[in-house]
Amino acid sequence: MQYISHYHSPIGRILLAADDIGLTGLWFEGQKYFARGLDREHEERETPLSEKAKQWLDIYFQGKEPQFEVPLHFMGTEFQKEVWKILCDIPYGNTTTYREIAEQIAENRGLAHMSAQAVGGAVGHNPISIIVPCHRVVGTNGSLTGYAGGLDKKAELLSLEKADVMCPGRRMQVKLKGKGE
Question: Per the residue annotation, which of 14, 119, 134, 176 is the catalytic one?
């Protein structure tokens, strides 16, 4: 059973979904793929997990990095889950590129190449916005590209984190956990 609740953020109303394992969804109302993966049968109810997620969001929207994790329950393909786990390793206030994630996956799998477009598809279908920070993924030239919640929200989230992404021609480098370890 999934349980839903709502959160009023400074940049829009958010729908949270969770089950007994972890958070399964966090969507801005009206975003692309809104409530995708939400069970048809669900119940509106505050749970300890939704309260923890809201506490995390309260801290985050104060411009601070939350110092605790919210349990997550990824529901997607194995490839999507692999990409989403990498997103979780992008440090607060930093960015990476679709290409860098593709290179990490190729390295982890022992492949010569991985499609950055395939990575982009998985990033775009991330059902747990903000906490799984897909907003920290930018184009190779540092441009803000694609965000299911809208580019205006992506820019606001990166600004909140004081991420330096508006540097034309400068690629932002991020060391992702698991790479080279």
Answer: 134
* 181 within a domain of the structure (yes/no): no
Q: Going residue by residue through the chain, which has 181 residues, state the pLDDT in tens, using 9 for 90 and above.
A: 999 999 999 999 999 999 999 999 999 998 888 878 888 888 899 999 999 999 999 999 999 999 999 999 999 999 999 999 999 999 999 999 999 999 999 999 999 999 999 999 999 999 999 999 999 999 887 788 888 888 899 999 999 999 876 443 333 433 333 333 3
Three-class secondary structure assignment of 91-153: CCCCCEEHHHHHHHHHHHHCCCCCCHHHHHHHHHCCCECCCCCHHHEECCCCCCCCCCCCHHH
Q: What is the domain range of residue 150?
A: 78-160
Domain match, 145 and 87 both: yes
Place of tokens 């979904």: 17
Residues near 152 by Cβ (< 8 Å), separated by ≥ 6? none
The 8-class DSSP code of residue 2 comes to E
Active site residue 134: yes
Instruction: Tell whether pTM > 0.85.
Output: yes
Q: How many domains does the chain have?
A: 2
Q: Does residue 94 belong to any structural domain of this protein?
A: yes
Here the CATH number for the domain that contains residue 13 is: 3.30.160.70
Residue 147, in any domain of the structure: yes
The CATH number of residue 149's host domain is: 1.10.10.10
